[in-house]
Design brief:
The chain is an alpha/beta fold. The protein has 2 domains: 166 residues, Aspartate Aminotransferase, domain 1; 284 residues, 3-Layer(aba) Sandwich (Aspartate Aminotransferase, domain 2), CATH 3.40.640.10. The strands form 4 sheets. The protein has a 7-stranded mixed beta sheet with strand order 4-12-11-10-7-5-6, sandwiched between helices. The longest helix is centred in the N-terminal third of the chain and has 20 residues. The termini are far apart. Bound molecules: pyridoxal-5'-phosphate.
Length: 487
């Protein structure tokens, strides 16, 4: 075993990892990267098929980002935002405000005008949560109910407040005693819709039963019940367009607009968690924009720095900001902050990343990659153990099942997703499953040939691990698109 791997085994405790399994084999030790390629300590090369857990945008070791970082490093790495402003954080805040607001929103009260920096997705959500809570108490009185409504399967991070907003049994059950109570409501999952409207295995569209937006009705009912009891929700919290850690589950077109209108109609603030979907991942720069939804809070992290450094931002409105203004001794201050809030290196590389993101070359690259992904993914429908293939923009989730006809899932103990990803790693492609869903989220610089290798490795891995020979019945299935319903 390489000496770095030995050190890791001796001392490093890895996130979301059963360490007994980890200690049974030599880990891949990454030492370098370039573009979509990662290199390990033994000189082997891999494709980074999930953008290093959804963080990297433009590729590793990008000359423009490196240069920006070096430039900033030549001045200063960090000074505190407690008591001082700094150059890149001020410029970045202004840039973010420009990027997240529709062009003609200058005088709109919905305009996201203020930026609170923190370190990662979880803290960005903690900030949104605490601000929404305090804002609501000030607006409705200290005795007002301040319940939050979030979606089934939601994941908003691992700090205690963010976990309270989440609803993934597996991650959250152990800590239920620590958490505050939030309400959950059904989120769309067309492939496993209890109302059974989507039938992706059927080629014939007439086989679809008409969808009556039962999942929207659930949100309506939840808000109405809360309202009748006199305790409107303080906020409705959601991942727009696609729930990530729930298993890359897309929302049908129109769902987001409908449910956010309903929540708003019942007086709830909107908290959009775009930690995964932000910065072009779903096609538009922000997923909320795709349906014209303007939230009161917008949480950004993962791609904010192009995947270089841990930095996050929570954006909100002037109205929320103003509720925290007062005399010093009134203590209306927002009592929250982190040591590295507004870090200069992070802000400098984020600025360079935004330049790239909004440039013509990157936009063209993303459009091409989205098409490449759509084309390559089609091959997977022919595999017997592929139940669903879903794509939103540059993100794909491939759901492995025991039986595509019945959609019978693999038991979690069968580790189907993990075994498939291990077989992909042996073919030089790195990604990580969510249960039985294999995620593909290539960096924007991924070439057509690299993408073909990513999807090809997944195809072969499913065949090898699950014995899922392709079958003639591929013609039975919708050979394109995903189970996401189109109304
Ligand atoms: C990753 C993620 C988070 C948590 O972000 P961290 O940086 O890991 O704390 C929160 N929300 C969503 C939607 C995420 O994908």
């Amino acid at each position: 075993m390489h000496k770095l791997a030995r050190l890791d085994h001796a001392h490093v405790w890895h996130p979301f990892t059963q360490m007994r399994d980890w200690l049974q084999r030599e880990p891949i030790v990454i030492t370098a990267g370039e573009g979509a390629v990662l290199r390990d300590v033994r000189g082997r090369e891999y494709l980074d098929a999930n953008s290093s857990i959804w963080t990297n945008l433009h590729g590793h070791n990008h000359p423009t980002l490196n240069a920006a970082l070096k430039r900033q490093l030549g001045k200063i790495a960090h000074s505190s935002a407690l008591g001082f402003a700094n150059e890149p954080a001020s410029v970045l805040a202004a840039e973010l405000v420009k990027l997240v607001n529709p062009k003609r929103s200058a005088s709109s009260p919905r305009r996201l005008h203020k930026v609170f920096f923190s370190d990662d997705g979880s803290t960005a959500m903690e900030v949104a949560l605490k601000l929404a809570y305090e804002f609501t108490r000030r607006a409705r009185g200290p005795k007002a109910k301040t319940r939050f409504l979030s979606l089934a399967g939601a994941y908003h991070g691992d700090t205690v407040g963010a976990v309270s907003l989440g609803h993934i049994e597996l991650f959250h059950k152990a800590y239920s005693g620590l958490l505050f109570k939030t309400d959950q409501v059904m989120s769309p999952y067309c492939y496993r819709c209890p109302f059974n409207k989507a039938k992706p295995e059927r080629a014939d569209a007439r086989e679809y039963r008409k969808c009556n937006w039962e999942c929207v009705g659930k949100v309506e009912a939840k808000c109405a019940t809360a309202c009748k009891r006199g305790n409107d929700y303080a906020a409705f919290v959601f991942e727009p367009l696609m729930q990530g850690a729930a298993g890359m589950i897309p929302q049908p077109d129109g769902w987001l607009k409908r449910v956010t209108d309903i929540a708003r109609g019942h007086g709830a603030l909107l908290v959009a968690d775009e930690v995964m979907t932000g910065f072009g991942r779903t096609g538009t720069v922000f997923a909320s924009h795709a349906e014209g939804v303007q939230p009161d809070f917008l949480a950004l992290a993962k791609g904010l720095t192009g995947g270089y450094l841990p930095m996050a931002a929570t954006l909100t409105t002037q109205r929320v900001f103003d509720a925290f203004l007062g005399e010093y001794a009134e203590f209306k201050t927002f009592f929250h902050g982190h040591s590295y809030t507004g870090n200069q290196l992070g802000a400098a590389v984020a600025l360079a990343s935004h330049d790239l993101l909004t440039g013509k070359a990157s936009i063209a690259m993303r459009m091409r990659l989205e098409e490449d992904l759509r084309r390559e993914l089609k091959s997977l429908w022919s595999l017997r153990n592929v139940g669903d293939v879903r794509q939103v923009g540059l993100v794909a989730g491939v759901e492995l099942v025991r039986n595509w006809r019945t959609r019978e899932p693999f038991a979690i103990g069968a580790r189907a997703g993990i075994r498939v990803c291990e077989a992909m790693a042996q073919r030089g492609v790195l990604t990580r499953p969510i249960g039985n869903v294999v995620v593909l989220m290539p960096p924007y610089c991924t070439t057509a040939a690299q993408l073909r290798r990513m999807v090809g490795a997944l195809y072969e891995a499913v065949e090898e691990v699950l014995g899922s020979a392709a079958s003639a019945r591929s013609n039975d299935r919708r050979a394109s698109g995903s189970s996401k319903l189109v109304h």
